[in-house]
């Protein structure tokens, strides 16, 4: 009988093109993936991987097996969902993907809440960009994913997935404290035509959105620095090396040398949680989605409390 974990390993190698990439996705070592493939080769009496330069390629037998594996793994996931729904218990394992700011701004509260309320459920968090996470949820590699898009740049949701809105996250312009426009109540993007910009890395969903938004306002952005991390972008702005547009979620406490100004008209990022349609019946999925909704309801309140606390500490130090 074919082992499901070994089929998952082969399927991941086929999807991501290497043993190391498959290991990263599955959350195990490259050695463990190689061992799973070797055992599967013995089970099937077939050579499944061959060396190709520095990597590997699938044999004809492996391609045949992968086509079956995709269907088998999908059917297993559906069967597990049906069993959980019948039991009505929040048990088992659940994997959640979230882009970095949601992983930092939402998921710690979610994971803590789920651990207390549902101790028989094991939940694992993985950081993943929405464009990567969506097909992985579709294939069953993740059970849930928090993704985002912008009102003027919607993210297509693949067939077979369902989504639920979590929160709308406004973006603000981040300026050095001494910037001539720092005291404005709000700013249009067209007023920033001569600025130097700090952005997410090229190809990132936020970098693409920033470039498109500025160009729609008649601004050809001069991006001088790239960073995937908000704290790094904020540090660069604080040093006077450029300006940025950042959503509130996951931004944390602002450095004292920067200020934020609302964008006019408002730029809003929409956050969703997505899952496979057949998983809707799983009590575990329902429980984690409920925990996410509860968490985002308090995110802004916690952010304002932290900002107030930081301001008080600064005043006390003076």
Automatic annotation (TrEMBL):
It holds the Pfam family LysR_substrate. Residues 2-59 form the HTH lysR-type domain. InterPro entries: LysR_HTH_N (IPR000847), LysR_subst-bd (IPR005119), WH-like_DNA-bd_sf (IPR036388), WH_DNA-bd_sf (IPR036390). It comes from the Bacteria. Keywords: DNA-binding, Transcription, Transcription regulation. GO terms for cellular component: protein-DNA complex. GO terms for molecular function: DNA binding; DNA-binding transcription factor activity. Belongs to the LysR transcriptional regulatory family. This is LysR family transcriptional regulator.
């Amino acid at each position: 009988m074919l082992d499901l974990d070994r089929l998952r390993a082969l399927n991941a190698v086929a999807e991501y093109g290497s043993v190391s990439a498959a290991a990263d996705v599955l959350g195990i070592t490259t050695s463990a993936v190689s061992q799973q493939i070797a055992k599967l080769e013995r089970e099937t009496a077939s050579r499944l991987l061959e060396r190709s330069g520095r990597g590997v390629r699938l044999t004809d037998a492996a391609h045949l097996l992968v086509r079956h594996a995709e269907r088998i793994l999908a059917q297993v996931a559906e069967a597990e969902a049906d069993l959980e729904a019948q039991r009505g218990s929040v048990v088992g394992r659940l994997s959640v993907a979230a882009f970095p700011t949601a992983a930092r701004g939402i998921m710690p509260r979610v994971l803590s809440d789920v651990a207390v309320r549902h101790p028989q459920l094991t939940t694992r968090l993985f950081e993943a960009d929405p464009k990567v996470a969506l097909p992985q949820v579709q294939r069953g590699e993740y059970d849930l994913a928090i993704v985002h898009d912008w009102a003027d740049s919607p993210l297509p949701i693949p067939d077979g997935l369902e989504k639920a809105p979590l929160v709308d996250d406004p973006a603000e312009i981040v300026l050095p404290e001494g910037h001539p426009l720092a005291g404005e109540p709000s700013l249009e993007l067209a007023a920033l035509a001569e600025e130097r910009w700090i952005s997410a890395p090229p190809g990132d969903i936020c970098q693409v959105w920033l470039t498109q938004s500025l160009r729609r306002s008649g601004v050809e952005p001069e991006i001088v620095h790239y960073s995937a991390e908000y704290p790094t972008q904020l540090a660069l702005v604080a040093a006077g090396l450029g300006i940025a547009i950042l959503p509130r979620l996951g931004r944390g406490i602002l450095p004292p040398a920067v200020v934020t100004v609302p964008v006019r008209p408002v730029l809003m990022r929409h956050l969703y949680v997505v899952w496979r349609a057949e998983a809707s019946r799983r009590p575990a999925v329902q429980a984690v989605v409920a925990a996410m909704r509860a968490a985002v309801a308090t995110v802004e309140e916690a952010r304002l409390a932290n900002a107030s606390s930081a301001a008080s500490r600064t005043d006390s130090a003076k």
